[in-house]
């Protein structure tokens, strides 16, 4: 018996997809207003996509991070960012925030990490990056569940 492929959720519910796009635009405005560097965002998005196992988004955000100016050593060392000297203080806090939002560790660890990020970034940048991490995880889930193919994949 031939199994039908799963639907692309963005195609199956275009109204919901369009509304998610509106949220994305609002979050992008928050990041711009807070002065979050594009490289910092793309590194966080790439790390979140790695953690969520989203091949489509890993490919996309790897290319975007490089295009935004992320050096090769940062992209290569992203999975071991905690032990790498290649990341500045803001990038480290953004990566910590992204990992915390994605993995949701136990409440005491989660609260500690989120407070560390908030204290380092300030309220506006913290809220912008936290929304960005939530949104990236949402996009990862949609892409994984829709079996989005990596462009140019064999």
From TrEMBL:
UniProt xrefs under Pfam families: CMD (PF02627)
The entry lists its GO molecular-function terms as: peroxiredoxin activity
Q: What positions does the domain Carboxymuconolactone decarboxylase-like occupy?
A: 24-97
InterPro entries of this UniProt entry?
Answer: AhpD-like, AhpD_core, CMD-like
The superkingdom listed in its UniProt entry is Bacteria
What is the recorded name of this protein? Carboxymuconolactone decarboxylase-like domain-containing protein
Instruction: Look up and give the organism this protein is from.
Output: Brachybacterium nesterenkovii
């Amino acid at each position: 018996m031939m199994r039908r492929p799963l639907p692309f959720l963005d195609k199956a519910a275009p109204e919901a997809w369009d509304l998610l796009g509106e949220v994305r635009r609002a979050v992008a405005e928050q990041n711009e207003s807070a002065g979050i560097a594009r490289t910092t965002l793309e590194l966080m998005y790439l790390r979140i996509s790695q953690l969520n196992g989203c091949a489509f988004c890993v490919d996309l955000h790897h290319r975007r991070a490089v295009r935004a100016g992320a050096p090769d050593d940062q992209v290569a060392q992203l999975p071991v960012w905690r032990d790498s000297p290649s990341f500045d203080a803001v990038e480290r806090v953004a990566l910590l925030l992204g990992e915390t939002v994605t993995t949701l560790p136990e409440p005491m660890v989660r609260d500690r990490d989120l407070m560390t990020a908030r204290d380092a970034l300030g309220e506006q940048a913290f809220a912008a990056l936290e929304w960005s991490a939530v949104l990236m995880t949402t996009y990862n889930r949609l892409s994984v569940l829709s079996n989005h193919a990596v462009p140019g994949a064999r």
